[in-house]
Structure formats: structure tokens, C-alpha cells
Amino acid sequence: MTSYFDEHDCEPLKEGERPNELLHLARLLLDTGLAFEDEFSGFFRGEKPPPPASKKVVESLPSILISPTQAATGASCPICLGKYDEEDSVKQLPCKHRFHPTCIMPWLERTNSCPVCRHELPTDDKEYEEFRKHKARKEQRDFDLENLHGSMYG
User: Where are the beta strands (DSSP E) in the chain?
Assistant: First the structure.
């Protein structure tokens, strides 16, 4: 990762020089963002796989009956690619993707994401949930820093 100074073609403050307050804030946020990566470095580097979806969430997934119209369109399960039959009961994830229960349940016992769009379901792993919160905050900080930079130099 390149440094902030290299990326923005600027120099660090010299001895006794007063900082630009907005630029100083941006640097502090950048430093804070890098500090928390060390805390969860295993997740960031992909060393730890995501945990299974929460049992409570999996049990509460709605079962949807396939209508004759949906069956006629040739809709199929994205995992096994088998076509849905009329009146088949399928599980629907929060992202609205639908799967045969026998296909999606083993998947969610291993990982917490939709196999189609990677939408993440909650887990029972407190450490991973904390990692997700930190990751979302980092993404928001990166977005805010980019907007700050754009407003200063755009």
C-alpha cells in the first residue's frame, strides 16, 4: 500500500510548521484505519474462513412455495441447477435468492454468505461480527476521506 504522501503527491509537515487541520484529520483517520487491521489481520488476509451462518437466522429463513407461473419460467436452484417444480418449497435468503433446502442448508453450515451474491448473514461468532463492524467503519472512513480529498482538491 502506498503512503498517503506518495498517493497525493505531497510532503509531510516540516519542523514547526502548522498543519492544515482537515489534512491532519485525514491523516489521523488513515492511521486509525490501519491500526485496526492488525487486530483482525487474519480475516483481512483471508487466513480465517468466514464462520457458518447463525443457527437462529438459518432456522428463521422463510420457506416459499414455487407458483405455477414461476415453475413455467424455468427457474432453477443456483446450486444444483435443478429446475423448480410447481409447489416446491424453497428457502429464500434476505437477498431474495432462492434455493432448494437440501442445497442451501449444508452451504450455510459452512459459511455465512449467499453463494450467488455473497450477501453475508449474521453469525454466532462474536469475533467475526466485531470484524464486520470494523470493516464497515473502515469502508465508511475510506469513502469519507475520498470525499474530503475531492472537496479539497476537486
Answer: 63-65, 89-92, 98-99
Q: Which residues contact 94 (CB under 8 A, 6 or more apart)?
A: 119, 121
User: What pTM was computed for the model?
Assistant: 0.61
Give CA separation, 49 vs 8, 112, 124, 150, 153, in Å.
34, 10, 14, 36, 40
Return per-residue pLDDT of the chain as tens, 154 residues.
Answer: 677 777 766 777 778 777 567 766 766 666 665 544 444 555 555 567 889 999 999 999 999 999 999 889 998 999 999 999 998 999 999 999 999 999 999 999 999 999 999 999 999 999 888 888 888 898 898 888 888 877 777 6
- Cα–Cα–Cα angle for 84, 89, 92, rounded to 5 degrees: 90
